[in-house]
Amino acid sequence: xxxxxxxxxxxxxxxxxxxxxxxxxxxxxxxxxxxxxxxxxxxxxxxxxxxxxxxxxxxxxxxxxxxxxxxxxxxxxxxxxxxxxxxxxxxxxxxxxxxxxxxxxxxxxxxxxxxxxxxxxxxxxxxxxxxxxxxxxxxxxxxxxxxxxxxxxxxxxxxxxxxxxxxxxxxxxxxxxxxxxxxxxxxxxxxxxxxxxxxxxxxxxxxxxxxxxxxxxxxxxxxxxxxxxxxxxxxxxxxxxxxxxxxxxxxxxxxxxxxxxxxxxxxxxxxxxxxxxxxxxxxxxxxxxxxxxxxxxxxxxxxxxxxxxxxxxxxxxxxxxxxxxxxxxxxxxxxxxxxxxxxxxxxxxxxxxxxxxxxxxxxxxxxxxxxxxxxxxxxxxxxxxxxxxxxxxxxxxxxxxxxxxxxxxxxxxxxxxxxxxxxxxxxxxxxxxxxxxxxxxxxxxxxxxxxxxxxxxxxxxxxxxxxxxxxxxxxxxxxxxxxxxxxxxxxxxxxxxxxxxxxxxxxxxxxxxxxxxxxxx
Length: 521
Description:
This protein has about 525 residues and is of the alpha/beta class.
């Protein structure tokens, strides 16, 4: 990718760090971001703009993270090649066994510091901090501390994924540098305008609508923006990426990936281990494989997939039998801990339904919750799907449909409420409930401003069941509303409304007397 888009605030802060070094001070910054957020590109851009001609690199590689000083090898070799740094060269390339035995870290650190001091003001770029070996991380800290303590000039800019190594580097630098000379930057997604600008630079001929779709699917990730533009928004690139990154991974890593893909949510380490039935050490090994390959992210004792496109691609590759098993495990696990949490119950219901487990009882429990409106339209659609796939005449399903109609009314989805009410009007075995369902249908049609259908349903309700004093009152209240809001004269509606109020008052007083008599007896 040519050119650079966005991250102007971050570039400005990194410019202050390199500017401080150019002015004879010591300053450092650590840039943290998820895979694909553009950390390496940002570091390269900041280095290109830095007023420092001496630049050195420390780069971590996953296969070498256990090899002492592997990440710092380029830095050390570059310093050793400097004409005035023979001492470091002798330490690094000692042939004599006695000299080699003396290859103590402190001697190397101090020799590297002296060599760097002789070079002059410099910028040390540290990339992929999460894979840096301990000694390389230690030498980075030593160079900053030594330069600060001795009044020299140095800038260090490091970038990496969220990890314990990144945290350790920030914390160690904070013990050395004053706050104004230390930055910790977290890279989030590109802003919408920046992402659109990047898409326009990558593919100038793309329409605005297509560009916005790419931005939405990418989640603001520079990596995925480029991948989607290259494949014209196709899905194939994500699938190939996941396959390529998992090459050589263990079966446990694949199993954990399947769990995370089907779960579609971050999982605590303990919960993931419980769901897989693994010891924690086994989970941690599988987790390391996924994180090191950039497929998953772990932070704060939780793990999740690095991007939704990875989740979609991975979920599509999970075999049917394994997918059903993961849904079953997740559904049962969520039910055990859901309590009255509507959101957690909703999640449990979705997994149980996807696994083909009986779901009507859970759906009924959910739809009767006082917080049921939190389910929203997606939750409503799931409840409708479960009801439609169940035995239509079963009492539990009829009652579920009754509650779904009430929820749909609460959510102002009167079309759904009307459809459920008409189903109930056909399926309830007793006439009173069929009449109530038709009355509810009339109310829904009224809310949809379809007064003709509302009148028709109300007439059918009256014909279905008569003689219930309270139900007859409700019929008249609905008729009064239709008369008052209809196109004809309003006198009948007003008269019926006043009459209904009076009848309602008498019913209430009669009920009160009945309760008083019952209490006195």
